[in-house]
Specification:
Shape: globular
Structural class: mainly alpha
Helix content: over 70%
Order of helices and strands: HHHHHHHHHHHHHHHHHHHHHHHHHH
Oligomer: single chain
Largest sheet: none
Distance between the termini: 55 Å
Number of helices: 26
Strand content: under 5%
Radius of gyration: 27 Å
Length: about 500
């Protein structure tokens, strides 16, 4: 009965917002059917998220006022003033102890271009604002359990009990109404879901991160807002959705800059910084990766250098090594070979000092790439063969990357049969890794090998395959290479 009353209250308010505007004109402005507007106003069904979002933007409606479970929002004593506010779409804030950030904090999140995560987070907020918290937590628990069960079913590589510890920690925090614990638990569980690296579960991980971001904004936990927004951006980056990923990285950067603007604990009226150097570095590096993928090398360089500055403030020296790795990759992209080798040298020193074997292997792959570009093929081959032996056992992620680079060295030095055999032997490992740039590189290499073997049709087929893959994943550099080679070898127009 309470829920019905709440929906009816919203319907009454919708009638007031519409005012003298006829229902048909109103429905056109909020882009829903006239029948839907009628249902919402009568309180027959709850309003959809898309409708609420458009209503907020089109009429400047304060959703705090619209969606509150209280029977009536606090109004000024002047009926005339209230009428004027309604006419202009502006409503007075609630005068109660409700956190001031809801749900504007949620609405301020960048649009994802997909509805499911948005609707899930809005639903979570509505539950947390319910008049009967115990019932709300029960419903929220059921939603999250369904989400986790769906993700488990999609992550074929993960046994059913893979996420048991993180799952129970999240459920326990919700049962205790521990909001921060729930946000932290959602992030930890999301990271476990995401760690399967299967595209099918990226959306599930993103829903959990969005839940955490929403709670963080609601309670002004800047550290969790930055962490959660960065993780949302990372899942989008893994799907090749560069623009959306960039927006979330920007959201994270804005959050910690707001904290910086407060001046720190020693400044007059300042607050103690809560966002760690490690979290800042992670966000800035992620943004740099996206910028590099979009061929915006100036922005990538700016973000990487800012990341280096943040990493300098961290007690974890290996973090600087991670930044030097990315700076080296960027210098290679810009064909600044000596600068790349300088970054590799600095990174290797830190990797050795901190015993980061995985980082050392990645840096040596970069070193080999410079050597290949300088046509020092024997030296590049020696570095990569040593890396492959080490990576196969200690750094499986780097193994197919090193193999691809070695195949490229072999092709460059005219040993195409060896290169082809190496690509075929490591194909399963490369597909399992799922690294988009590496997969695209392998398809370009197959095209080069086919061309060298005199099979132009096969070469063009590989290029077309690479072209479509690069277009779907937003890989601008690989797309341009494949397009140029395809036009140059076949005279075919490149599909848009």
């Amino acid at each position: 009965m309470r829920a019905e009353k709440s929906v009816g209250d919203v319907g009454t308010k919708l009638l007031g917002i519409r005012g003298d505007l006829d229902q048909r004109g109103f429905s056109k402005r909020v882009k829903v059917s006239q029948q839907a507007v009628s249902n919402y106003e009568r309180g027959n069904v709850p309003a959809s998220w898309g409708f609420l979002r458009r209503l907020s933007r089109e009429f400047s409606v304060d959703l705090n006022w619209l969606l509150a479970d209280k029977a009536a929002a606090a109004r000024s004593s002047s009926t005339q003033a209230d009428s004027l506010r309604r006419t202009n779409g502006v409503h007075p804030p609630l005068r109660d102890n409700r956190p001031p950030g809801w749900p504007r904090a949620f609405l301020d999140q960048p649009a994802l271009g997909e509805t499911d995560p948005v609707e899930v987070v809005l639903h979570v907020f509505l539950l947390y604002l319910a008049t009967e918290p115990a019932d709300a937590r029960t419903r929220l628990m059921a939603d999250l359990q369904r989400l986790v069960a769906d993700a488990t079913g999609r992550a074929a590589s993960s046994p059913p009990d893979t996420w048991a510890k993180e799952r129970e920690a999240l459920y326990g925090a919700i049962a205790r109404d521990d909001r921060r614990g729930a946000a932290e638990g959602a992030i930890l569980l999301g990271e476990r879901v995401e760690s399967s690296e299967e595209r099918s579960v990226m959306r599930d991980a993103r829903k959990l991160y969005l839940f955490a971001v929403g709670l963080a904004k609601l309670h002004r936990w800047v550290d969790l807002e930055v962490q959660g927004s960065g993780l949302v951006a990372r899942t989008l980056r893994k799907e090749g959705r560069w623009e959306e990923s960039e927006r979330y990285y920007e959201e994270a950067i804005r959050a910690f800059r707001r904290e910086d603007a407060a001046g720190g604990a020693d400044a007059p009226g300042g607050i103690e910084a809560t966002v760690s150097p490690e979290a800042r570095t992670s966000v800035l590096l992620g943004y740099g990766h996206v910028a590099k993928q979009r061929d915006d090398l100036a922005t990538a360089r700016e973000r990487y250098l800012a990341a280096l500055e943040s990493a300098m403030a961290s007690t974890d020296k290996s973090l600087r090594g991670d930044v030097y790795l990315d700076l080296a990759s960027l210098a290679i992209r810009e064909e600044q070979w000596e600068k790349a080798l300088d970054f590799v040298r600095k990174g290797k020193e830190l990797a050795a000092e901190t015993r980061r074997d995985d980082l050392l292997i990645d840096l040596r792959v970069n070193e080999a790439e410079v050597l290949r570009a300088q046509q020092r093929y024997d030296r590049a081959e020696a570095v990569l063969r040593a890396v492959i032996v080490e990576a196969e056992h200690s750094a499986p992620r780097a193994f197919p990357l090193a193999a691809s680079n070695l195949a490229e060295v072999l092709v460059d030095s005219g040993r195409v049969e060896e290169a082809l055999a190496l690509l075929e032997d490591t194909e399963d490992a490369a597909e399992a890794l799922g690294h988009p740039n590496n997969i695209a590189l392998r398809r370009l290499l197959r095209a080069r090998i086919a061309k060298a073997q005199g099979d132009d049709d096969a070469a063009n087929a590989h290029l077309m395959h690479c072209l479509r893959y690069a277009a779907n994943r937003g890989l601008t550099e690989e797309f341009d290479i494949a397009a140029a080679r395809l036009e140059g070898t076949s005279g075919r127009p490149v599909p848009s």
